[in-house]
Design brief:
With 106 residues, the protein is mainly alpha-helical. The chain has a single domain (2-105), classed as Orthogonal Bundle (Major Prion Protein). Helices cover 84% and strands 0% of the residues. It is elongated, with a radius of gyration of 18 Å. InterPro entries: ATPase_inh_sub_z, ATPase_inh_sub_z_sf. This is Aldolase.
Length: 106
């Protein structure tokens, strides 16, 4: 019986670890997208970093489906930058392997 309990604990620990890793990857991915968006809007590096923190903060305090995409798309509209949801999603998917590699290197 103890072997089964130990296996269960091992699976639970792995599951918890995987969830945490995925969360960190997604957070880093969204930050990368927001920094990229800030750059597209003509912001300096520091302004882009601050913008990314603001976007992530807004999405965390007001969660919604496609939250980061929605916020960035609205900001692009305010800056008269022509961008679609599908273009932002493509950029997000292009950044995903980079974000994953950077988080896993930590």
């Amino acid at each position: 019986m103890t072997n089964l309990t130990e296996r269960e604990r091992g699976f639970e620990a792995k599951y918890s670890f995987d969830l945490e890793q995925n969360f960190r990857i997604e957070a880093h991915l969204y930050k990368m997208l927001a920094v990229w968006a800030g750059d597209k809007m003509g912001m300096t590096e520091a302004e882009s970093q601050a913008y990314a923190a603001k976007v992530i903060g807004d999405v965390v305090t007001n969660p919604q489906e496609n939250g980061v995409i929605s916020v960035i798309l609205a900001d692009f509209g305010r800056h008269n930058i022509d961008m679609t949801v599908s273009e932002l999603n493509r950029k997000l998917e292009a950044l995903r392997p980079i974000a994953r590699a950077e988080v896993l290197e930590e």
